[in-house]
Structure formats: C-alpha cells, structure tokens
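Risk mitigation, structural track. In case the binding assays with histidyl-adenosine monophosphate fail to produce interpretable data, a predicted complex structure has been prepared as a fallback.
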Amino acid sequence: MKYESPRGTRDILPSDIRKWQFIEGTARSVFESCNYAEIRTPVFEQTELFTRSIGEDTDIVGKEMYTFLDKGDRSITLRPEETAPVVRACIENNLLGQNEFIKLYYIGPMFRYERPQAGRSRQFHQAGVEVFGSSDALIDVEVIELGVRYFTGIGIKDLEVDINSVGCSICRPVFKEKLKKYFEGKLDGLCENCKNRFKTNPLRILDCKEPGCQKIIEGTPATTDHICGDCRDHFDRVIGYLKQFGIAYKLNKRLVRGLDYYTKTTFEIVSRRLGAQNAVCGGGRYDDLVEELGGRSTPAVGFAIGLDRLLLVLEEQKIRVPEDQRLKVYIATLGEQSKQKGFEVLQNLRNMGIKSDMDYQGRSLNSQLKTADKLKAQFTIIIGEDEIQNGLAVIRSMDHKTQEKVRFEEVLGKFK
Ligand code: HAM
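Fallback model:
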C-alpha cells in the first residue's frame, strides 16, 4: 500500500520552508508593528457557527465544508475561514466589552472542499486580521493599507485594490429586489447555479465566473448607486481617505464576495498576473456578525490573505527570500573517545549560539568531510585518534582550504 496526501493537500518540505517562514514571519512583524495581537482558535468548530455566519446559500456552506459527526454525534466542521471562529472566541472570552476596541491577527490552515487547481487547494493557509469596535471609515482604510503594507514588505508589485460597498441590512434588500428585476427576463442565459441563486440570493450571481453569466452581469446596476445615505456616506469617506493617503484602488461594482456577513465596504487585493484565482487577499466590514452570533452589537472589519496563492506570485515575480543561516561548524570524529570529545565541543559551541552539527553515523573521515562540504559548513573541527592523544583538534576552513592545529582548551576561543 502506497499512501499519498489527500487530494487538494500537500506537504511543505524543508526545501520550501524558508519561503513559508518568510511570508508568515513578515505577516507577524507587519501586523504586530501596527499593534495587532495574535489569536489562535481550534481548527474545528460546531458546524452551525459557519452556516449562520457565512450563509446557507454560499458555495462555502453549500458545497465546500468538511463536515462530519464526531463520536458524540456532534456536527463538526473543519474551519473554512477564520472570521467566524475569531468572533466566537471574542464573545466566549468576553473580549468585546462596551466601547472595547481590539485588533487581532491569525495565521493558519483553512479547509474547503473545492476542485483543486493552481491557487486553489483543499487545505490552504491564511494570514488575516480582524478589528472590533470602530465604525470609523478610517479603520477600513487602516485595514486595507495594512494589506498593501504587507505585500510591499514581501516585495510584491503590480497588485491592485478592488473596492465596493454592499450596503447594509436596510438598503441591501431593496437592492436585491432591483437585481431580481434585472435578472428576471434574462434567466435563460444564466447557468444552473445562478438560476438557483436567483431564487435564494441574487447578489450571489454577481460572484459567478461562468462566461455566459459574466456577460449578463456586466449590465447589472451598481450596488453603490443604490445604497442608503449612511452607507453612501461611509463609502465616500473610505474613498476620500484612500485618495488622501495615496492608496491606489479601483471601484468594482460587482465585488460582493463569497460570504454573506459583509456590510458596507468589501475589498480584494488582486494580482493581474495570476489566472482565474487572482485574489490574494479578501475582506471587508461586517457590522452585524458579532450580534448575529450572540454578542453585543459591535462594528468590525478585517481581511484574510491566501498564503498559498501569495507564494505563486512570489515565485512568478522571482522574489528572493532570506537565505538559510549557514552552518558554522561541522565536527568530524573518529572512534568512541573522539566522538565523546566532539559532542562536548558541540554542546559548548551551541551554548555560544553557534550553528553547529556533527556526525552520528560512525562514517569515515572522508565521508564526514564530504558531508561538511554538502552542508556548506564554514569550518570543520576534526578530532581523530591522534588528536585525542595529543590534546589537539584540527580546525579546517572549508572556504579557504586551510587548517591549523589548536589545543582543545583553545578551540572555543577561536569561535568567540
Ligand atoms: P475569502 O475571500 O474566502 O475570505 O478568503 C480569503 C483569501 O483566502 C482569498 O482571497 C484567497 O487568496 C484565499 N483562499 C480562499 N480559498 C482558497 C483555496 N481553496 N485555496 C487557496 N487559497 C484560498 C475569507 O476567508 C474571509 N474570512 C476574509 C475576511 C476576514 N473578511 C473579513 N475578515
């Protein structure tokens, strides 16, 4: 039997791990420098948390969740996203008191049963932020700017911020009716999914990527032409700030996002160089979600970056990631006594914070030197039988191909 990782998942091997450490490490440092604190939640939750928040009619809830009964007959779902779990955690742990303002971030795996393709997998990784407690348009802009700041920190160019407003619980129903009227005479041209969406939630049609539907969608009224005064005012402020602070954006009247909890601002950061799956970051405001999930009414805004997709951009733009710290010392030994001496030296080098290693396979001196070369060690310390007898070690510079004999007591001093 040959085991393989499940379809839509993959191993991240040591040869690729630097890239991951780089994009995750940059997320951590950029978010923390803007005063966001990390939160970690379980990778699975009660199913209802997601059906209630993301919405029954969305693709995520309808088709893509990893849902199962646990041994106690509870319906459990592997998290397809992290906004709902963060809201749940904030409510459960009383992080959202009156007038509380908190800024959180997370990094971790998410799970969606999607058709795998470039930039789309079943286990993927997000880095995201969620801010609770402000309805000020300026915090929408901080969040958008934070996304841009992160990508700039990574060194990525040619990204674009698409922005829209989907209105609120007051104006959205009116807009949905307008959309219904628009699509009514055009149902024959829509795909089967969209015919269903027409009945359940016509807004979802705007998210459809089918070419036939796309043509019809082009003529739809813009959400922003039909939002209420309050939403209009908020949107104008967001746009005003984006202009004022020099953050390039593009209005996208069809940007409704694939999750139902959004109110007012929605945005995506897209790479025009990626194919169909071109959004590397998506987010927006969700002022009703905390209350819907049982908390006190709290305005909120956030985003999530798709790290797997970001890596594709990184590779496409040939962005160099910081290299491995080089191995400073490799210790080659011969025989039991010299091995023990070698391990003692190794411990001391490590206590000094020096990246070092030694042979544990009892191989010939020649093989050990080859390993030192392969590991690109800067120095090899050779402790052979002769050396043990004379209390000497050989320090060999692998770069300069020179070596010197040094008394054991003086070895560490050479590396200070
Ligand atoms: P989302 O748009 O569903 O939003 O996902 C955010 C990002 O995750 C996408 O732009 C994409 O880069 C990445 N992503 C999503 N699905 C996959 C997949 N199957 N494979 C690879 N990458 C994927 C959310 O998840 C919201 N929770 C974002 C948010 C936070 N809104 C407010 N706060």
